[in-house]
Amino acid sequence: MGAPNHYRSAGGEPRTVRVLDFDRLPDVVRERLVRALEAGGMPAPLLRVEESAAGTIPGSQRFWRGTGIVAAFVWLGLWFVQFGDLDGPFSVQPRAFVLGHVLVASLLALVVIVHVFFRRSKDEGAPFPSGRYLFLLDLVEVRGRILTVTSLATLRRVEGRAGGKRGEVLLVFGDGDAAPLRVSEDVTETARQVQAAIDEAARLILPDDQPEIERIDPFFELRIADDWASAAPVAREADSRVPAFRWLVLVSVAAGALLGSASWVARNHASDASMFDQVREAAERGEEYEFARRHMLYKDLGMHHRDELDDLAFEHAKKRPEWLAEYLTMAPEGKHAVEADDLLFDMVMKADSLPRYRLYLDDARGRRHMDVVDDAMFAEAKRSNTRYAYQEYLDAHGKKHEHEVRSKFLPKAEITDATQKQEVAELRAIERRYGAEWTQAVTEAIHHAYADRLDLLRLRKGAGADEARAIFQPLLTWLDTKEDPRVLLDVTIVLPNSFLESETAFRNEHGDRYQPVGTAFPRIAKGIEEKVFNAIVLRARDRFGGAIQFQSPTAEKGTPELPRLVVRMRLEAGNEPFVSRNDKLVFCDARIRLEMHAVIPGADPTPSFVTTSPRSETIRPDSYDASMQKLDGVLGTPKNLIEDAYPILLQEASGELGTLLVQAF
């Protein structure tokens, strides 16, 4: 390595290239190079092109440091986004995420490798940037601490080559090779100046120009003594170059494939463990709903704790029969299924109740005692002998006695239940549901219901008893004959001429101070009719049960054979109106007169029940005076509007009628 390196291209001149180790250079040469390349002193290079300290690695240390930080955050994101999240679809990442882990791990591996080479370059290299430096006598290429020095003695010419944002200055040697140096200035002028400076230096001779040569030559001592061999590196150091970047990438990808796969597996294992801990925590706290929710979610997403989950679910389920039933439904083939079924069976038989039997029979999955529980539930239903009990048996999917219940016990229980409630319409529905074989029983039950109602009506005493018998005794008798509870309820209210005449008299007496009812009546008539209709339906239900079923007349058009309960209402004016204190506003003492009778097909109308609502005790005419309206505005309380006076009064009157109607039932 000490002797000059000579190589020649076809027809070319020899080019001298020396490879030197910075650490083996004489102290004065090292100091001169540091002063020239790092401190900006002499001898200053004509041109300098600094390169990455790692040689073939693109990008700066800052770029790779930033890349590493970004990759680390992405890796953390891959780890902790939806980590242990029972509600997250990616709490356990699918295999597609392996690629993401591999890519990030490969990038991190590449950053670490690049950092190592940067660090190595910094620790072992020369104390100035790597790159190409053109001195007057040599072209020096620095790679770490290895310096490649090419003598300019065989330089043929210097050329400028423009292109893009940067041009190049080419050093063309005698053997035909060229060394490019990137420059940002005018390449033609730069090349001319470089050529001139090199030519001028080539004319220097020893010993006459020794001071000048010493000033411009950083390797002066080696050149004078021709002792280049003393600074040559050993063979291993000379060959220790940075591998090509593509090889670094391949090594990083190989490392990333291993590390990324391991990262994906480790992340999923850790997330799975976190999710299972949440399930166990809910079980330990005894939170039924939360445990059931977490158990279901982990069962869908979890990977490694299936057996432990089953153990946990069974221990939790043993506390209540409902939980045991749910456990068997969710895990009918689980390792604790037999034990859970036996335990649930013991609880159900000990409770000896319809709800517990149904809990067992509702779902056959995992159940081995279905026949025994079926018999027990049927026996309990027979002891209860109610519609509810037999329906519970059927709703619980009882099989052994289903036909017997549907054909015998349930119809009979339904008839008994409807008879007790005197639901005639329901009795007819039972006949339609179960067929003609039950017609006789249904008919007897219907007659029994009407006979019971008629007996109670005959025994009634007190106010309104005679009016009630006069209307409802013939009505119930007719309904009993037809075995049909339907009755049309016809309720209407009118504004009679007599009331309008009374209003005319009030207007003549009080002038504009009188507030007429007529304008408010159309707005409230329908509401009064509906209120009285509902009151009659309610009173009849309380008194007669389902023996009378009122319907609106519009619902039975074209069915003239149905009886009617006719209710006619009209407004009447009291003799003493309401008068306000300040403005002397006059309001009519409006009341509602009600007349009710029954119209039975083929018979005369029954006698009527008549009643009239009393004088209002709640209306306050003073509240409509202007002074009170102003006070309400100051206090921020709702104002009493005159147009609302009669609607309020008449709604109160219709409510009073509902109370008075009690006498007629």
From TrEMBL:
It comes from the Bacteria. Keywords: Membrane, Transmembrane, Transmembrane helix. The chain crosses the membrane at residues 63-84, 96-118, 245-266. This is Uncharacterized protein. It comes from Polyangium fumosum. The lineage of its organism: Bacteria, Pseudomonadati, Myxococcota, Polyangia, Polyangiales.
